[in-house]
Amino acid sequence: MNYIVKKYDPNYDGYRFEFDDKRWINIDLDDQYPNYHIIYNNYENPLWFYISQDGKNTIKKYNILDLRKKSTSHKKIRIDNIVYKIATQTEYDAYNIDTNDNNKLYDYLNELWTTPNLQVTYV
User: Fold this and answer.
1) What does the pLDDT average to over 52-57?
2) How far apart are CA 110 and CA 2, in angstroms?
3) How would DSSP label each residue in 32-64?
4) Of 36, 45, 27, which Cα lies nearest the Cα of 92?
5) Who's near 103: CB < 8 A, 6+ residues apart?
6) Band of pLDDT at residue 57, cut at 50, 70 and 90
């Protein structure tokens, strides 16, 4: 399962979470998960979240402007002999120990994802 936060949908008063297979669900983050944190790994914000590739899945925040001074490649970095890659929203939600609402939402979405015979409505 992998998902991204696509956009705020005013028709449903919630944020659209879209899965890789293009199915989606709207969730009212303000009421249900008020402390949910959306990560913005884009060039407007130089602080990006990375996840370790050593099996521990440690989430860390690095300044890509500093990283790019050392190397033009910032998709994967090596710090203290640990390789990190840019974290997705799904990975951030699953492994970040500091964000309880993110973990709760991940568990909810994962339960939906793994439920057999889940009814899907197409609009």
Assistant:
1) 96
2) 9
3) H-TT------STTS-EEEEEESSSS--EEEEEH
4) 36
5) 93, 94, 96
6) very high
Burial track 29-62 (b if 16+ CB lie within 10 A, e otherwise): beeebeebbebebeeeeeebbbbbeeeeeebeeb
DSSP-based three-state secondary structure for 110: helix
Distance CA 17, CA 64 (A): 26
d(CA 17, CA 25): 5
Q: Say if residue 122's pLDDT is above 80.
A: no
Tokens in use for 4?
């991204």
Q: What is the pLDDT of residues 59-89, one digit of tens each?
A: 999 999 898 888 778 889 999 999 999 999 9
Number of Cβ atoms within 10 Å of the Cβ of 108: 14
